Each structure stands twice: as structure tokens, then as C-alpha cells.
User: Fold DNA primase from Mucilaginibacter rubeus.
Amino acid sequence: MRTLSCGEARQIPIIEYLAKCGYQPQYIRGNNYWYLSPLHEESHASFKVNTRLNAWFDFGIGEGGNMIDLGIRLYKCSVKDFLPLLSSGYTHLSPDAKMIITFTPGPKSPAAKENHIEILDVTELQTPAMVAYIKKRSISQPLAKTYCKEVRFAIAGKNYNAIGFANRSGGYELRNDWFKGSSSPKDITILKNHNGTQAVCVIEGFMDFLSLLELKQLRRPETDVIILNSVALIGRSIEILKSYKDVFLFLNNDKAGQTAAEKLRQADINGIDASEFYKGYNDVNEYLSAQQRGALQAQIRREAPEERGLGIGR
Assistant:
């Protein structure tokens, strides 16, 4: 049997491959199919497949790519070993059963040729669509304009706008109603208070950072802050965190967040778990949105911890 070329393998629709492996999307938004990750345990879908690009990204581990990249992660093998397996019709073992499938390479899809993000322009937050998106995420426009920009970017030859949050290396986290991604280089963001503080807050994403400021009714944090922009980047914060006396952890209440906290413990960083502040919710932004809907406002006022301060508004 002829072995598929890399080009042919990349044309296999990822969502079809996942379906025949037993994985179904948790929800679909436009061209984006969201799954519970096939690469690690989780309770909230963080694995996205964009059908227009035929590309995937796992936000739980901060990795993504094409069909081949997914295959070598699933099999834990090299490209050289994966292509014959794919060509023979043998696919990933699901947790429950073996499944044998056969793919017939179809015509090459122009959408799958390129998924590189090119930043075209960075301006102040201003267009109605981006202002509406920030409001939808329960963040006030003045606060968002303090830390975010509006970024025009190109992907696969088409231009889009998104909320942009800069990292320390010049890349941007990009968000809008249908897109969640980042430009290169991917990195953490460090915000220094310059007040001699010995405390730092470690926060998973920038929406959670903005949400904490909203909850504390602050424009600027009273501690230093590290926004990971992906828990997969937790290792880049370790040496920095060792210089602080108090490390407050605002990580997601999921497996990936627990794994990140464990990595810090293994590095002798005994972070203070601040997730009790948003217990019952996956992250701080989800908690904030629930509060602003009004259903839990009274309960939040009763249960909000005051005695310790939880870092960002000490």
C-alpha cells in the first residue's frame, strides 16, 4: 500500500478524523468546533478545530497545528512512523475501543495551506464590534482600553479585527466573538507595580486579569501580575516567582490549572490558591459574568473573602 505524502495527510479533515476516533464536538461556533481535548483530561472544551483552515489548537497545553501534528501527538511517534499508520487505515485508539478507518485523499483545500497570523495594524480600542465584545465579557470599556488594543490581522489571506493583549515578547493574545488565538511569539505578560511589593498574582488569561480588576473596582493592581496567556507557559514564570514572598494563584478550576499549580510546587514555589474566590466557576471571568447577571450578587457579597485580601487588591 502506498504511503500518503505529508501534503495528502494534511488534507484529511480533522473533524472527520476525530469523529471516527469517537470524539464529537461539545459545541460549534461558525467554523470553530470545540472538543474535550483528546490529548489530556479536562471538563471544559479547550480543543478547537477551525474547519476553514483545517487546523487545531489545544488551549489546555498551548499547542496546535495540522493533521500530522495531531497524529504524532496522539500516537506519540514521529512523522515517519505516523504516515504509514495513517495510510494503512489504522487510527488512534480511543479510551473505549479500537477503530479502523480508511481515508481517501481528496483535492487539496486552499484553506489548509496557511494559518499564520500576520499583524497588520494596532490601534486604540474603538470599533463598535470590539467594544460590544468587551461588554459581552463583562469588562468596562475604560478598563479594557487601559490594557488592550484593537488589532487588525490577516490569516489565510483575509483581514480581521480582534481585541489584542500584548505579551513581553511583542506577540498578542487575540480575541473576538469567533476567534481565540495568538500571534507569534507566544509568551507570558509581566505587569510590574513598581511599589516595592513582595507579592505577585499569577493569572491564566488576560480576561481573568481584567475581571479581577473589575471585581476589586481597581484600575491598576496593587501587586505585580504575571498573565500566563496559556498554562502551558507556566515554566517561564518559575524563576521570576522565586523572587516573591507571596504568590497568589488565580488558575482555572480544571485539570490544566491543577497541573500548573503542581509544577510550581515541584519548583518549591508554594503558591496561595485563590480559586476559592471563584469556587463553582471555571475561571474569574465566568464568575464576574454571573455576578453581573445579578443572580448571585447577594451570595457573592456574603462569601467574598475579605480577611486575606487575595493578592491583587491587598
